[in-house]
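This part of the workshop introduces the protein records we will be handling. A record pairs a protein's sequence with a compact description of its fold. As an example, a complete record with its sequence and its structure tokens follows.

_____
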Amino acid sequence: MRSDLVEQVKLRYKQSLVEKADKLETLWTKYKHQPDELSSFLHQLAGSAGMYGYDDITEQSISLRKNLTVDPIEQHQDQFEKLYQLLIKSAK
């Protein structure tokens, strides 16, 4: 019974990854006006993804968040796209 509940929670998280990808895209476009929102979202994404076993999403989120603190956003478009695609792929 408990394992069924755990699997349901994992499935709900997996299904939420498309929404997370959409939110990432929205926050990316608003970054210059609201940089803290993207940073906070990446922090939360890294933590929640790790809890559900999506270590690659965790690593990409941490890396992107760190890189945005030292370089302009334009230098990380490829990294953003990689994380976005990873979210979409992981949702399938």
In short: The chain is about 80% helix and 0% strand.
